[in-house]
Amino acid sequence: MTRPTGRLDDESTDQPAAPEDEHLVQEAERIAVAVGRMFPGLCEVVLHDLRRPDNAIRAIENNLSGRQVGDSATELGLRRVADPDCPSVIQNYSNQFPDGRPAKSTSIGIKNAEGRYVAALCLNLDVSTLSPLALTLANLVTTNAEHQDETLETLRDRTGRELRSTIDSFAAQRSSTPRSLNRDQKRELVRRLHSEGFFETRSSAQLIAHQLGVSRATVYNYTKQPQR
Fold it and tell me: Which of 46-79 are b and which e, b meaning 16 or more Cβ less than 10 Å from the residue's Cβ?
């Protein structure tokens, strides 16, 4: 965190110092430091002491704008000094660093008990580094439109252990055991297993038949749609 070599004298203040106001500003300073260190090199966090508009910057973390402690308030800060009815939170507005990099900013005004702005906490996110990353991620997750609505495979284990677990879970949800399921329930289970790809291995049908206490032919028969 960049800090001044010494505390600004009360003689340089534009408004009389009040212990309550100073406490608010000190607490805001702690927040500025914590938030800034959460996003190193990515988000500039600036605390403006609006009691001293000509020397407003009290703390700055992740200095991306080149400003220094003791620099003056921005136009938005001056608006808050002049107008207590200025919005307390102005969020996610487009901004720009001096070197032209785009920024996304949020400004949070802090009022004292009398309703007067005493400070502002400003976050300036450098989106120039995020835009290429967003494009890269978008390209990374893009799938071939040719197979967009087609399930070519499911990336699941098709071992006997998972098959038994699926059957046991189906039966347990119906307060039953696999062999105690009625015919309709067994047919529903078999069709579900079939749709989920469990019949891709040769031994699956026999294992299902054993678990349900039916023949292998019955299992295959359950996979068929009923005649109408």
Answer: bbbbbbbbebbbbbbbbebbebebbbebbebbee
What percentage of residues in the chain have a pLDDT greater than 70? 83
CA 43/CA 95 separation, integer angstroms: 13
Q: How far apart are CA 146 and CA 86, in angstroms?
A: 53
pTM attached to this predicted model:
0.56
Q: What is the predicted pLDDT for the residue at 88? A: 94
Q: For 205, list phi and psi in degrees, rounded to 5.
A: -60, -45
If you search the block for the tokens 């696999």, which residue do you land on?
178
**Would the pLDDT of 186 be above 80?**
yes
Confidence of residue 137 (pLDDT cuts 50, 70, 90): confident
The dihedrals phi and psi of 75, each to the nearest 5 degrees, come to -60, -40
Q: Which distant-in-sequence residues (6+ apart) come within 8 Å of 18 by Cβ?
A: 112
Q: What angle do CA 178, 183, 185 make, to 5 degrees?
A: 60
Tell me the C-alpha distance between 182 and 174, whole Å. 11
